[in-house]
Design a protein that fits this description.
Structural class: alpha/beta
Distance between the termini: 18 Å
Catalytic activity: 2-deoxy-D-ribose 5-phosphate = D-glyceraldehyde 3-phosphate + acetaldehyde
Family: Belongs to the DeoC/FbaB aldolase family. DeoC type 2 subfamily.
Protein name: Deoxyribose-phosphate aldolase
Pfam families: DeoC
CATH superfamily: Aldolase class I
Strand content: 5-15%
Number of helices: 8
Enzyme class: lyase
Length: about 230
């Protein structure tokens, strides 16, 4: 399967490990981009100045994608302009790097808040909106996904700009991922079924995909401990 071009869309690390990841991938002759979480991941409760500096440092170290997490307090207290202003500053700090905005939907209180936060993140310049950090009690769910996808569709109809979507947390098997692929196809269409507009953030899923590829090649399943990622 080495010639099939099957890779992850990016390798995501903490800001302090960006340099290590860039060096390791370069040494391996690999062109997979490095993404970095930032802005006080996962809680987003550090000072704004610190969060912005974290973004800038990650970009300087070689990250080409930045996953920021919003301050949930601004959503829960209805400070929508302040939320917009913060994400605009994250956008500026990213420079040319792609900005993925994590909404932490399991902590936003209502689907109405999820929709509003989605729209504000897109208006402020996000390239992707992402459901969760993977650290919340409730992560990627279909009801939340439908709200976010319809916000993306509304935004596209109004502006002509396509924004990506990334569910994260709790997606553990290749069969689970098929349901998400079907949802994207039904809500946004085939043009969103590519890494530039759809990602799945789930480390456990990678292990199962590895097992499925092994089965495809050999006709049998490997034990988890037989495979490198597992």
């Amino acid at each position: 399967m080495h010639d099939k071009g099957i890779t992850t869309a990016a390798v995501c690390v903490y800001p302090a490990r960006v340099c290590d990841a860039v060096k390791a991938l370069k040494a391996a002759g690999c062109t997979i981009p490095v993404a970095s979480v930032a802005t006080g991941f996962p809680a987003g409760q550090t000072h704004l100045k610190t969060r912005l500096e974290e973004v800038r440092l990650a970009v300087e170290d070689g990250a080409t994608e930045i996953d920021v997490v919003i301050n949930r307090t601004l959503v829960l207290t209805g400070q929508w302009e302040a939320l917009y202003d913060e994400i605009r500053q994250f956008r500026k700090a990213c420079g040319k790097a792609h900005l993925k905005t994590i909404l932490a939907t399991g902590e936003l209180g209502s689907l109405t808040n999820v929709y509003k936060a989605s729209m504000i993140a897109m208006m402020a310049g996000s390239d992707f909106i992402k459901t969760s950090t993977g650290k919340e009690t409730v992560n990627a769910t279909f009801p939340v996904a439908i709200v976010m996808l319809r916000a993306i569709r509304d935004f596209f109809w109004k502006t002509g700009k396509k924004i990506g979507f990334k569910p994260a947390g709790g997606i553990r098997s290749a069969k689970d991922s098929l349901a998400w692929l079907s949802l994207i196809k039904e809500e946004l269409g085939d043009e969103w079924l590519k890494p530039e507009l759809f990602r799945i953030g789930a480390s456990a899923l990678l292990s199962d995909i590895e097992r499925q590829i092994y089965h495809h090649v050999t006709g049998r399943y490997a034990a988890y401990h037989d495979l490198p990622m597992c």
